[in-house]
């Protein structure tokens, strides 16, 4: 299998369900696939995870120099902000699984308030199907003192990302320069996590976890990333990725991918968000770095953009395609309530498939959808 698409078929016709490698893969093949692993050991989706049970933007022409390639793993140009990672390595040792994987999310102060998104996010692990243990491996990144205090009140593993050259205490409105700078900063800490030899699964905090999503992540992939809608293009790799949910394995190539991604920002006019840049350069990552990218189909890694009405397969539900915190909270709470009703049923009743999820009506209205 060549670089690029993994976990399904890149053929003219349809989308195959993303596959999961079984535990009985030949040892030689595993070591071949993991030959670019940073540090010692082999990164796999370990049994510890299983538990018990867009927008396009006009980019300038790609520069020939100063961007990493498969043979040239130079660092990305220095960013505008001075970022420190004091205490990160020590915290990762406490949070990570035996196979050195950590679940990461990031929050602002408003999201950490009682009955806001962080409460819904953590509640998903508590009420999900065999995923309560995963909350012990969640690292919550905060960017100001208020969000750090709010995080520590409800979760033991919180990290304050210190940015000395930027005032992170003021409110950040969607689309403003400060907001965009904030979302780019998450790539700097993710790069550092990979460099320290840890895999990560980044999940936005406006995502409700219902089941274990790792069962749909292929160990072939350097990166597995969610989609807004897996039916919008004949090939999954041509669908718009949503970088609110993605897994990256710690390899030399994945570090080069994030460096390339961060460096590519300078090629865009205006103040592009990281998702726009990623969707524009993802085929470059495949061709230039030989990256293996797995698109995650919305049948399992779902969201409000491509709403899945049944609860028999969905692992996560993202409040994407939604404007306004109150709308996100309202519609995610409806999904959480429907999930509790679903899990209270007998297996026989569940198999009938008659229980559906309440449509995200407020979020749809916020987008002007009927």
Automatic annotation (TrEMBL):
Q: Which UniProt keywords apply?
A: Membrane, Transmembrane, Transmembrane helix
| Pfam families, sorted | Nucleotid_trans (PF03407)
- Membrane-traversing stretches: 16-34
- From the UniProt entry, list the residue stretches annotated as the region Disordered: 49-78
Q: Where is the Nucleotide-diphospho-sugar transferase domain?
A: 133-332
Checking InterPro entries in the record gives: At1g28695/At4g15970-like (IPR044821), Nucl-diP-sugar_transferase (IPR005069)
Biased-composition ranges, Low complexity, are 50-70
Give coiled-coil spans as residue ranges. Answer: none
Q: Which PANTHER family match?
A: EXPRESSED PROTEIN-RELATED, NUCLEOTIDE-DIPHOSPHO-SUGAR TRANSFERASE DOMAIN-CONTAINING PROTEIN
Q: What is this protein called?
A: Nucleotide-diphospho-sugar transferase domain-containing protein
Q: Which organism is it from?
A: Panicum hallii var. hallii
């Amino acid at each position: 299998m060549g670089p690029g698409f993994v976990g399904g078929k890149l053929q003219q016709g349809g989308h195959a369900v993303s596959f999961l490698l079984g535990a009985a893969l030949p040892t030689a093949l595993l070591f071949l696939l993991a030959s670019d692993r940073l540090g010692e050991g082999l990164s796999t989706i370990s049994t510890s995870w299983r538990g018990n049970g867009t927008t396009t933007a006009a980019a300038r022409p790609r520069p020939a120099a100063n961007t990493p390639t498969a043979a040239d793993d130079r660092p990305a140009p220095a960013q505008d902000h001075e970022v420190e990672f004091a205490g990160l390595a020590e915290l990762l040792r406490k949070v990570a699984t035996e196979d050195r994987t950590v679940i990461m999310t990031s929050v602002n102060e408003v999201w950490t308030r009682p009955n806001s998104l962080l409460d819904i996010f953590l509640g998903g692990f508590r009420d999900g199907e065999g995923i309560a243990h995963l909350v012990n491996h969640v690292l919550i990144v905060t960017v100001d003192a208020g969000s750090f205090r709010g995080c520590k009140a409800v979760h033991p593993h919180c990290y304050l990302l210190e940015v000395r050259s930027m005032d992170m205490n003021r409110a950040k409105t969607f689309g403003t320069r400060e907001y965009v700078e904030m979302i780019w900063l998450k790539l700097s800490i993710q790069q550092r996590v990979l460099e320290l030899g840890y895999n990560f699964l980044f999940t936005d905090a406006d995502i409700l976890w219902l089941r274990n999503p790792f069962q749909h992540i292929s160990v072939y992939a350097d990166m597995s990333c969610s989609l807004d809608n897996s039916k919008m293009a004949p090939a999954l790799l041509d669908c718009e990725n949503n970088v609110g949910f993605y897994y990256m394995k710690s390899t030399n190539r994945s570090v080069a991918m994030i460096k390339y991604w961060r460096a590519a920002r300078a090629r865009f006019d205006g103040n592009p968000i990281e998702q726009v840049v990623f969707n524009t350069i993802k085929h470059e990552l495949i061709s230039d770095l030989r990256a293996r990218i797995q698109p995650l189909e919305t049948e399992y890694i779902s969201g409000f953009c491509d709403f899945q009405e049944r609860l028999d397969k969905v692992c996560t539900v993202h409040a994407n395609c939604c404007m306004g915190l109150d709308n996100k909270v309202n519609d995610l709470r409806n999904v959480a309530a429907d999930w509790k009703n679903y899990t209270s049923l007998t297996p026989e009743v569940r198999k009938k498939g008659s229980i559906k999820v309440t449509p995200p009506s407020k979020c749809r209205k916020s987008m002007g959808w009927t």
